Automatic annotation (TrEMBL):
Pathway: Amino-acid biosynthesis; L-histidine biosynthesis; L-histidine from 5-phospho-alpha-D-ribose 1-diphosphate: step 7/9. InterPro entries: Aminotrans_II_pyridoxalP_BS (IPR001917), Aminotransferase_I/II_large (IPR004839), HisP_aminotrans (IPR005861), PyrdxlP-dep_Trfase (IPR015424), PyrdxlP-dep_Trfase_major (IPR015421), PyrdxlP-dep_Trfase_small (IPR015422). Its cofactor is pyridoxal 5'-phosphate. It comes from Dyella psychrodurans. This is Histidinol-phosphate aminotransferase. Coiled coil: none annotated.
Amino acid sequence: MSVLDLARPEIRSLQPYSSARMEADGGQIMLNANESAWEPVGDGGLGCNRYPDPQPAALLQALAQLYGVSREQLFVGRGSDEAIDLLVRAFCRAGQDAILIQPPTFGMYAVSARIQNATVIETPLKPDFSVDVQALLDSVMPAVKLVFLCTPNNPSGKSIPREDIQHLARQLTGKALLVVDEAYVEFSDQRSVADLINRYDNLAVLRTLSKAWALAGARVGSLLAHADVIALIRRIMPPYPLPLPCVAAALVELSPSGQAVARENIAIVREQRAIMRSALSRVPGVREVLPSDANFLAVRFDDAGTVYQRLLQAGIVVRDIRRYPQLGDALRITMGTPEENARVLTVLNEGRA
């Protein structure tokens, strides 16, 4: 069975839109896309008067090398969110198919499914925020086409063991596409499972430049998967998903000097995460600081609402995650600079009763 047998048949047979840029290979005088012939003021040589390459070759090459995959196993879009949306649209028929998630987890999986009118099936995480592998497998029914895992998980920060992911990929073969969201994997000791896509054609991996690579504003995310899955996603992608300035910013960040800086910052975040976890655990009113492999800490408070407002009044914005299952007393604190983190501790300690 091909993994494409899980996809919507009408998508498999869809005639994709052929953009003017796709048909312009080798052109010198570009008169086919109704663009302006003049570069805009302040363009700096980017050529923003022209439509961008739908999948820029230089960016694909840089990301493929970074993630250890081939260019045919890689789709680049506007953040991981776009890849999630395209996967749901490609594999889930409205009103018939479903996705499976493990709350508490990243909210966009369910949002994308509901926009598509796909059912959202939930298998809650265990009390320690680990995946209940057997309960997950027991929840898989024929309607389930996509199973989403987030590791390290957002908002808990807990990673899923590699052996659990491999076991799920094996068990879901021919049943569902397993989508592993690794938005925070650079901050973890656990390595990516991207190398497993050569072994399991029903495994897909989401990566992003928004977190460790400091490009949240550029919106550059990747889907790594079997070449057939990537080819399917490219059939339904928007004609020009990546703006030229975003591509340029990504290429600078992925240069040798850019990668060196990013890795230095990742090391600082990991160090600060350990310092903050220890310090926060000693703050009066803190019930628990959850262990985290990400660039944030989920912290339980006696009165999370009051703490949130105290921080906000001091100009510090953290994430209120009390709406998530099992986290009704928690706030999520992203690791900032050492100075910013010290300020958080100062404000929390000033509020001692």
